[in-house]
Amino acid sequence: MSIQKLFSAPLQVVNVGIESFKEACEKNGAPAVQVDWRPPVEVAPESEAILAKRAAKIEKANQKVMEIILAGTPKLVGLDVARNVIPGMTEDTILHAGPPITWDRMCGPMRGGVMAGLVYEGRAKTIEEAEKLASSGKIKYAPCHEHGAVGPMAGIVTPSMPVWIVKNEKYGNIAFCTLNEGLGKVLRYGAFGDEVTQRLKWMETVLYPVLKAAVAHSGPIDLKNLIAQALHMGDEVHNRNRAGTSLLYRALAPAIVATCDNKDDAVAVLNFINGNDHFFLNLSMPVCKATLDAARNVKGSSIAVVMARNGTDFGVQLAGTGDLWFTAPAEVPDALYFAGFTKADANPDIGDSAITETGGLGGFAIAAAPAIVQFVGGSAADAVRYTHQMYEITAGESRMYQIPALDFRGTPTGIDVRKVVEKNLVPVIDTGVAHKQAGVGQVGAGIVSAPMGPFAKAYDALAKILK
Amino acid sequence: MSIQKLFSAPLQVVNVGIESFKEACEKNGAPAVQVDWRPPVEVAPESEAILAKRAAKIEKANQKVMEIILAGTPKLVGLDVARNVIPGMTEDTILHAGPPITWDRMCGPMRGGVMAGLVYEGRAKTIEEAEKLASSGKIKYAPCHEHGAVGPMAGIVTPSMPVWIVKNEKYGNIAFCTLNEGLGKVLRYGAFGDEVTQRLKWMETVLYPVLKAAVAHSGPIDLKNLIAQALHMGDEVHNRNRAGTSLLYRALAPAIVATCDNKDDAVAVLNFINGNDHFFLNLSMPVCKATLDAARNVKGSSIAVVMARNGTDFGVQLAGTGDLWFTAPAEVPDALYFAGFTKADANPDIGDSAITETGGLGGFAIAAAPAIVQFVGGSAADAVRYTHQMYEITAGESRMYQIPALDFRGTPTGIDVRKVVEKNLVPVIDTGVAHKQAGVGQVGAGIVSAPMGPFAKAYDALAKILK
Question: What pTM, to 2 d.p., does this model score?
Answer without folding.
Answer: 0.91
